[in-house]
Write a structure and sequence with these properties.
By secondary structure, the chain is mainly β. The chain has one domain. Helices cover 13% and strands 34% of the residues. The chain contains one helix and four strands, in the order βαβββ. The longest helix has 11 residues. It starts with 8 loop residues before the first strand and ends in a 12-residue tail after the last strand.
Length: 82
């Protein structure tokens, strides 16, 4: 399995996501709120309410890959939801 693939686009979800959602829950957000296909060659990035956790999701043609990062003392600078 490749750790990273070349993606054509990176999409940040500007709202926050409940991180108890599984990959399937995040796929619904991608399809319904972001109006994108989760099977595109794109990296989709989500942040939690406190901006101390981030998840990145992409399709690698064999399945979905999910990365998760938690910061211990800082927070991610994230665009405000419009």
């Amino acid at each position: 399995m490749k750790m990273f693939v070349e993606v054509l686009a990176i999409y940040l979800y500007s709202g926050y996501v409940n991180f108890r959602k599984s990959i399937n829950g995040q796929l619904l957000i991608i399809e319904q709120d972001m109006a994108h296909s989760p099977f595109d060659e794109a990296l989709l990035v989500f942040c939690n309410r406190h901006h101390d956790k981030v998840k990145a999701l992409y399709w690698d043609k064999t399945g979905f890959c999910l990365w998760y990062k938690r910061l211990e003392q800082d927070f991610f600078r994230w665009p405000a939801a419009s």
